């Protein structure tokens, strides 16, 4: 049987050409990851939907503890908007928009769908995205609200980082309610070296090296219930009747070590609640759930430290 043309070409290629193949492939990978990492300054993401949601007390909690949760019925969004957004999520399955993450199944067992405000419009940069069905008004509400949160933090003087840039592309994650699917403990920011990750891994982690904040809007049932029985530190399901699926936020080093204090906080993914955390400080994991679980995530990059005091200019 004759060898394929590609195989013949490679066997005849000079060693120097073969050595260049990984670099070319890395370049293509880099282009793909740069495109998916396009961002806008936080001020350009300002939205009336996010206005007034965050208070000074929220910002101080975020600075001190590394995370803050905005929750309570209608605290972030009305039940009607949430219900319509949840219905639209179902349509993403029928259109085949969910796919496996690039991480291995041993790390995370969810499916992901990538969303932009420009999906299905002539303004989409990627030709493939122009052919998607445009986002409905309620999903656009969720995307704009989530992307507008960083501007609210800036207005209230958030001081852990500044010069924030907000990703245009948001991740919608789906974890099946099988009491097994989750995401192992990890950090959204990466400081790992080229030596640790290899060339392609280091290129893929380029955007993660800039992350300073993560914002998550939960699109689950607003009557979602926490685990009735505490789960083990490994995230194994409890024996209770709760829905589970908590995001376990491990306390930063400065908050731990006190006698009698718990080393983590479990955030219940109640529909309509919003979680903001420091991507450089807060390790976290997704615990398994007994109901299908959905979370819309936005990443924000920035420069460490307080920004220039605008009142002095």
UniProtKB/TrEMBL annotation:
Residue ranges constituting the Fe2OG dioxygenase domain according to the UniProt record: 166-302
Keyword Transmembrane helix included in the entry's annotation: no
Keyword entries, A-Z: Dioxygenase, Iron, Metal-binding, Oxidoreductase, Vitamin C
Cofactor(s) this protein cannot do without: L-ascorbate
GO biological process: cellular response to hypoxia
Protein name per its UniProtKB record: Fe2OG dioxygenase domain-containing protein
MF terms (GO), sorted A to Z: ferrous iron binding; L-ascorbic acid binding; peptidyl-proline dioxygenase activity
């Amino acid at each position: 049987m004759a060898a394929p043309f590609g195989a013949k070409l490679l066997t005849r290629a000079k060693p120097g050409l073969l050595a260049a193949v990984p670099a070319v492939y890395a370049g293509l990978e880099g282009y793909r990851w740069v495109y998916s990492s396009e961002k806008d300054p936080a001020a350009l993401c300002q939205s009336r939907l996010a206005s007034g949601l965050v208070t000074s007390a929220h910002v101080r909690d975020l600075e001190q503890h590394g995370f803050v949760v905005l929750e309570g019925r209608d605290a972030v969004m009305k039940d009607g908007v949430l219900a319509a957004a949840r219905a639209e999520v179902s349509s993403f399955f029928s259109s085949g928009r969910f796919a496996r993450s690039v991480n291995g199944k041993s790390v995370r067992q969810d499916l992901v769908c990538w969303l932009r405000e420009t999906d299905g419009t002539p303004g989409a940069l990627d030709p493939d995205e122009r052919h998607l069905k445009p986002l409905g008004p309620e999903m656009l509400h969720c995307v704009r609200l989530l992307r507008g949160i960083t501007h609210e933090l800036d207005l209230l003087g958030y001081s852990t980082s500044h010069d924030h840039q907000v990703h245009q592309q948001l991740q919608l994650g789906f974890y099946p309610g099988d009491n097994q699917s989750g995401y192992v403990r990890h950090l959204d920011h990466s400081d790992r070296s080229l030596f640790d990750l290899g060339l392609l891994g280091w290129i893929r982690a380029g955007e993660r090296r800039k992350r300073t904040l993560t914002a998550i809007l939960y699109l689950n049932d607003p009557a979602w219930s926490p685990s009735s029985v505490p789960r083990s530190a490994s995230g194994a399901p409890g024996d209770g009747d709760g829905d589970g699926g908590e995001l376990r936020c491990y306390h930063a080093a400065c908050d731990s070590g006190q006698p009698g204090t718990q080393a983590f906080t479990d955030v219940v993914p109640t529909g309509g609640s919003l979680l903001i955390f420091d991507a450089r400080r807060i390790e976290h994991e997704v615990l398994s759930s007994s109901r299908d679980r959905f979370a819309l995530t936005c990443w924000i990059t920035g420069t460490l430290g307080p920004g220039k005091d605008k009142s002095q200019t």
